[in-house]
Amino acid sequence: EPEVTQTPSHQVTQMGQEVILRCVPISNHLYFYWYRQILGQKVEFLVSFYNNEISEKSEIFDDQFSVERPDGSNFTLKIRSTKLEDSAMYFCASSQDSPSEQYFGPGTRLTVT
Amino acid sequence: RKEVEQDPGPFNVPEGATVAFNCTYSNSASQSFFWYRQDCRKEPKLLMSVYSSGNEDGRFTAQLNRASQYISLLIRDSKLSDSATYLCVVNIVGQGGKLIFGQGTELSVKP
Fold this sequence. Notes:
- The complex is a heterodimer.
- Chain A contains no helices and eleven strands.
- Chain A is an all-beta fold.
- Chain B is an all-beta fold.
- Helices cover 0% and strands 57% of the residues of chain B.
- Chain B contains no helices and eleven strands.
- In chain B, strands 2, 4, 5, 9, 10 and 11 form a six-stranded mixed sheet that branches. In chain B, strands 1-3-8-7-6 form a five-stranded antiparallel sheet, with no helix packed on it.
- In chain B, a hairpin with a 2-residue loop joins strand 6 and strand 7.
- Chain B is globular, with a radius of gyration of 13 Å.
- The interface between A and B is medium-sized, with 27 and 24 residues.
């Protein structure tokens, strides 16, 4: 069964450093998303991406965040200058259509020290 | 008012019990509805979409009442493996596929 994959599973970084989180969506999906979940809190939407453009972004997704589809398979989330409050689980998701069922990857646990 | 509100839980039930989860949403422009389950520190996994006519998948039944802006999930004959957090999720028209999650209701099924 096709699935979304994410790397790394855990990333530790120092405050102010840049991080890139990577995702490989399901191959025939066209819509891609990033969500985050701070420990003990609900899952929050960050951004949606379709046809090489951002479709929607949340207030969390400020100038420090960017997304890219650098090739036909990868979808990345970059945080330019990490803050302590960026520590969270980051989930990538993809869907065939929109709106449609979204399938989530296993997540990257980001720890900012 | 929260966009998606669920029973706070946790629910502790014996194996074989029937459990009902309730959820309300505030935005009448919500167009798609889902139940996901999330195991501890794992990703949300799609359990089922929720349709206006109601739908069933084995032991799981989902209902939607658009007039009341209310969604439910019923689990019959609960198993130990059903222990997880159940997430009520909605999508609002015109918002780029954005999913809005409830806080989740934790279920613990005991032998």
